[in-house]
């Protein structure tokens, strides 16, 4: 009788999608409600630009593109296009409302370097 041990690799346990914190989900939901539309979703993309080479884009979008990765967080859909998905795997979107910081923040484990403003990365 043999017993097999199964060990999971880091690749198998690493998140493959972007995560949205509860605080950020509440803020996104409130902003969508202010728009007065129920067809909008939060889209996050990575585009060339910024002082570090790549720039984050966060915006509301009603479109569905071929290859989109869609996740639901408490009724808030977060959409990532297929080209941006590898750059954003495991990234966490949060919302800060403090005296020293206000707005959406992105903690991306794939970013090797980022600029001081936090808007772009490499």
TrEMBL record:
<dbReference type="InterPro" id="IPR000361">
    <property type="entry name" value="ATAP_core_dom"/>
</dbReference>
<protein>
    <submittedName>
        <fullName>Iron-sulfur cluster insertion protein ErpA</fullName>
    </submittedName>
</protein>
<dbReference type="InterPro" id="IPR017870">
    <property type="entry name" value="FeS_cluster_insertion_CS"/>
</dbReference>
<dbReference type="Pfam" id="PF01521">
    <property type="entry name" value="Fe-S_biosyn"/>
</dbReference>
<dbReference type="InterPro" id="IPR016092">
    <property type="entry name" value="ATAP"/>
</dbReference>
<feature type="domain" description="Core">
    <location>
        <begin position="20"/>
        <end position="119"/>
    </location>
</feature>
<dbReference type="InterPro" id="IPR035903">
    <property type="entry name" value="HesB-like_dom_sf"/>
</dbReference>
């Amino acid at each position: 009788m043999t017993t097999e041990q199964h060990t999971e690799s880091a690749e198998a346990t690493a998140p493959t999608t972007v995560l949205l914190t509860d605080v950020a989900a509440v803020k996104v939901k409130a902003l969508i409600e202010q728009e007065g539309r129920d067809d909008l979703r939060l889209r996050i993309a990575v585009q060339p630009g910024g002082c570090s080479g790549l720039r984050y884009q966060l915006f509301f979008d009603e479109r569905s593109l071929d290859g989109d990765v869609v996740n639901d967080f408490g009724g808030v859909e977060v959409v990532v296009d297929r080209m941006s998905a590898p750059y954003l795997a495991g990234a966490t979107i949060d919302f800060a409302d403090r005296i020293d910081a206000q707005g959406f923040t992105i903690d991306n484990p794939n970013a090797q370097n980022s600029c001081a403003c936090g808007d772009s990365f490499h």
